[in-house]
């Protein structure tokens, strides 16, 4: 069953990210690539995640200047070979404004039982995405 890749617009990428609750944050940990699954929300074009302050994601992002990360989310049907994948690449920073932090803590509950005491905002500078589609549907 052959499929083609259809490139998504930035708006489509943001809509798909906002419509799925989890993805993977990609960052550098001790000079090596690291990936962690996390749940997220999208707010004003930014991807918001929570982490444990002593954890590797938060420790990496902890600098005031931020750090470049990638955030990837997808929904793929392995039987039909259809779905989509979106990657947001940009700067991640700790949310330090008390009002913003409190609002995100209310909106975003961690899925794992851990003390997620920090909030991280990823501001995408590059949003790319693709949808796996049936060639006949892509021609329409």
UniProtKB/TrEMBL annotation:
InterPro entries: Pyridox_Oxase-rel, Split_barrel_FMN-bd. It comes from the Bacteria. This is Pyridoxamine 5'-phosphate oxidase.
């Amino acid at each position: 069953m052959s499929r083609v890749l259809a490139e998504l617009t930035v708006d489509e990428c943001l809509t798909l990210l906002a419509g799925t609750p989890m993805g993977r944050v990609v960052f550098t940990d001790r000079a090596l690539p690291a990936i962690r699954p996390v749940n997220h929300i999208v707010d004003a074009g930014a991807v918001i995640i929570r982490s444990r302050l002593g954890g590797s994601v938060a420790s990496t992002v902890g600098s005031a200047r931020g750090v470049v990360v990638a955030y990837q989310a997808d929904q793929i049907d392995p039987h039909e070979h259809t779905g989509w994948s979106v990657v947001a690449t940009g700067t991640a920073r700790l949310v330090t404004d008390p009002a913003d932090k409190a609002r995100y803590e209310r909106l975003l509950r961690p899925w794992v039982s851990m003390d997620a005491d920090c909030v991280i905002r990823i501001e995408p500078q590059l949003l790319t995405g693709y949808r796996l589609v049936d060639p006949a549907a892509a021609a329409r």
